[in-house]
Amino acid sequence: MSYLRSPERQRQILSCARKVFAERGFHGANVSHICAEAGIGRGTLYLYFENKRAVLVAILEDLVSRVKALMARRHIPRIPREAAKALTRDQIVAFSEGRLAELLGVVFSDQQTLRIVLREAVGLDVDIDKILATMDATLISIVERDLIAARDELGLVRDGIDLHHVATMVVGGVEKLALAALRGDIASDLPALIRSVVQFHLYGTMKPQAEGGVA
Amino acid sequence: MSYLRSPERQRQILSCARKVFAERGFHGANVSHICAEAGIGRGTLYLYFENKRAVLVAILEDLVSRVKALMARRHIPRIPREAAKALTRDQIVAFSEGRLAELLGVVFSDQQTLRIVLREAVGLDVDIDKILATMDATLISIVERDLIAARDELGLVRDGIDLHHVATMVVGGVEKLALAALRGDIASDLPALIRSVVQFHLYGTMKPQAEGGVA
Amino acid sequence: MSYLRSPERQRQILSCARKVFAERGFHGANVSHICAEAGIGRGTLYLYFENKRAVLVAILEDLVSRVKALMARRHIPRIPREAAKALTRDQIVAFSEGRLAELLGVVFSDQQTLRIVLREAVGLDVDIDKILATMDATLISIVERDLIAARDELGLVRDGIDLHHVATMVVGGVEKLALAALRGDIASDLPALIRSVVQFHLYGTMKPQAEGGVA
Amino acid sequence: MSYLRSPERQRQILSCARKVFAERGFHGANVSHICAEAGIGRGTLYLYFENKRAVLVAILEDLVSRVKALMARRHIPRIPREAAKALTRDQIVAFSEGRLAELLGVVFSDQQTLRIVLREAVGLDVDIDKILATMDATLISIVERDLIAARDELGLVRDGIDLHHVATMVVGGVEKLALAALRGDIASDLPALIRSVVQFHLYGTMKPQAEGGVA
DNA sequence: GATGAATGAGTTTTCATTCAT
DNA sequence: AATGAATGAAAACTCATTCAT
Which residue of A has its CA nearest to B21? Predict the structure, then answer.
């Protein structure tokens, strides 16, 4: 028995639960597993959370709030259009990479949360789905906002693109890469991954010459 | 009650299970639900499947085999490099759209299977994960093969791109769009979605002029 | 494992539960106790009853329906008022004793049910309370109906009596006697008890001379 | 927080527990409920009572001791037999009503205790049952002693009556009336109820003429 | 082959009680 | 003396699976 103040104990349980859920999945994890991990009695968990599901919800909402905080914090740098025109390709790439790294840093700050969001929390129940949808929507809107700014203020974006679709695909693509990395299907070389993402979403796959050579 | 020979009955159970799993999720669905849907007794299911999990596995493996069949069937059209150079932008787009539509047609032939793959089968257990990973890998390798062919045989692909990463992102992006459509966050207008995907992955987001204007 | 048809199994569980509840009380009795007594698995009980509480409710409602059946069955014998006047004291006593014995026969047909009604089902929850109240009300109204008939049709009842109060007291008195008998505080000599009840409720305690001698 | 010496604090807890038990029943009431009501910490209760059950026992024993005190206090007024013969019917009734009111005053001094005795403490465990049995026995013996006195010293009681049975029925009848009043089935008009009880137990239900007219 | 009654392992959850502070 | 955080025993209940019919 160790006496901890409420908020610390709550955080401790949360972090142990994160670990356990990531390792065993939501259904594979017992309340007992979590409590053993946290070194507390089984009843203690119920002093801090209504039930097992509420622990997961807390983990997810914690992440959502971090993502929303990011969105609130981040503002589009105001560059005059003239200056925008003078941006080099490398400057644009570098800026995009920075933005993306920032985003990924918050979302996938730890592998455990990543695993939980992408795998353990999926398909559990309607309310949890709503939280995941909120997170998706927030992530997507962050990317979309950047794209809209790049289009409207910097004039950098190709015409006739549905930016919401694109933002959705960017987030989905990033998550799939992350999942593949989690599975060990591809190397977890974050900078390389980020470079791939940025290159891909800026330029697409088609050779400029090919494009250029087209009537 | 009704006399169906083994294979038909098996298929019938499978299709009822698909419906039930899609509607209620793997954990939310009882064996009873499936059997009621199929109009058979609870024990009968066990004549055809070892257990509940095996039913889901069968659904997934059925999909995997359809995807693999697609991969085996599909071969890259051999176009002489010279001809490739003469391809118009619209021809490339049209061809890509066709390929993608074909792919999506197999994978997401029905909303039920889609839902199961993207939501209900996620995070269940290690073996099911392996199946999902196999499907991901197969899908990705289909896209990747197309990309490799476009690069190596047609010379259409930009240099310095990690095509495995790109293929992964394309699949991930498509799935995220599908998920958003399932959730009702975006319109389920398949042709429009396919167009977005193809435009995005061919050209990326950056304006050609912007790119062109860079030193 | 023994295969019983639904209704028999249900009745068997009910009768075992009656025994177990009577012996150990509602809270003292486990579902396991009941199942062990019935020689069935723990889950089997839940095929027949929604939960432990529902088993008790079924026991009580079974009794209520027997009591209500008695009330429906029983009709007041129509005796012309003239004939009523000619009834001897012993005839009235004998008739009352018969009626009471009939009532007790249904209600307290077995000690187990009696114990459950008087002790184990008391104070459990609002709905069970309602059932007990219904039973009380039915018993009381049976007695009251007899009293009203004796008053209105036979003219046998003293003036200025609140017959509902009296009926309530009769039922309460009988139950207290039964409880005392259950506890072993008084002899379980049913005929003697019935005689006491009838004498008491017909004549009261006061000596007729005493009454007669009053101005 | 508030400084109360042991005995007052004990009494305070007891009175809060009485309220809580009456409102929620023994099983429905948490130790927390009681402590919250008393404005003390959860551990504090255990400084004054061994456990939850002990609190209920204390409430009941307090009542038992009040009832026993009544019994000890109450003595039969010595009236010469001659004087007894001269008692009017109204005098006897008035006296009986007084005695009964006195009894009820102690037992059911408050609705809370009444509810606990009649509903919440019933069927809990063997020891509590013994206390309730003691209370029943004491109440019954008080009534019985009055009846014996009325018979042996005043000669007011009809022959051939088992006074223990009668006393038991009187107590049972009174309790059933009280229960019905608690339930709202009958009006809680104490004087009217007392009158009904006294009339009934003195005179019974049968019309004197009817009785008189019998051979 | 088909059935569905029976099973019981496995989990969540509650709450009286303890004891470090 | 007072507290309330921590405990864990105890119990209800679900549901995939078995197997007598």
Answer: A123
List, for residues B60-95, the tens digit of each pLDDT value: 999 999 889 988 888 777 777 778 778 888 888 898
Task: Mention every residue, 6+ apart, whose C-beta is less than 8 A from residue C30.
Answer: none
Instruction: Return the sign of the alpha-carbon dihedral for residues A175, A181, A185, A186.
Output: positive
> B156 contacts in A (CB within 8 Å)?
206-207, 210
Identify which of C172, C167, C92, C201 has the alpha carbon closest to the alpha carbon of residue D203.
C201
| Contact state of A92 with B206 under an 8 Å Cβ cutoff | yes
Q: pLDDT grade, residue A59 (50/70/90)?
A: very high
What's D165's domain CATH number?
1.10.357.10
D46 CA to E15 C1', in Å?
Answer: 15
Q: List CB contacts (< 8 A) between C196 and chain D.
A: 161-162, 165-166, 169
Closest to C201 in 3D by CA, of C177, C185, C183, C179: C177
pLDDT, tens digit, 9 for 90 and up, residues D93-131: 898 899 888 888 777 677 888 888 888 888 888 889 899
Answer whether residue B211 is part of any domain: no
Domain, as residue range, for B91? 59-205
CB contact under 8 A, C199 and D160: yes
Closest CA to D177 of D187, D166, D167: D187
Q: Point out the residue among A157, A169, A193 whose CB comes nearest to the CB of B173.
A: A169
Question: What is the mean pLDDT of the segment spanning B165-174?
Answer: 93
CATH of the domain at A36: 1.10.10.60
Q: Which nucleotides of E are covered by protein (CB under 7 A)?
A: 1-21
Spatial distance between the Cα atoms of A177 and A194, rounded to a whole number of angstroms: 10
Q: Does the structure show a pLDDT above 60 at B2? A: no
Pair (B34, B89) in one structural domain = no
Contact between chains at B120 and A119 (C-beta distance less than 8 A)? no
D42-70 tens-digit pLDDT? 999 999 999 999 999 999 999 999 889 98
Question: Within window 47-106 on D, which residues have Cβ closer than 7 Å to strand E?
Answer: 51-53
Per the structure block, which two tokens stand in for A185? 């299907």
Report d(CA B70, CA D29) in Å as an integer: 66
B39 and B135 share one domain: no
Residues B194 and B126 in one domain: yes
Q: Which pLDDT band, with edges at 50, 70 and 90, does C170 fall under?
A: very high
A26, A127, A168: which to substitute to probe chain B, counting the most B Cβ within 10 Å? A168
Subunits close to D (at least 3 CB pairs below 8 A): C
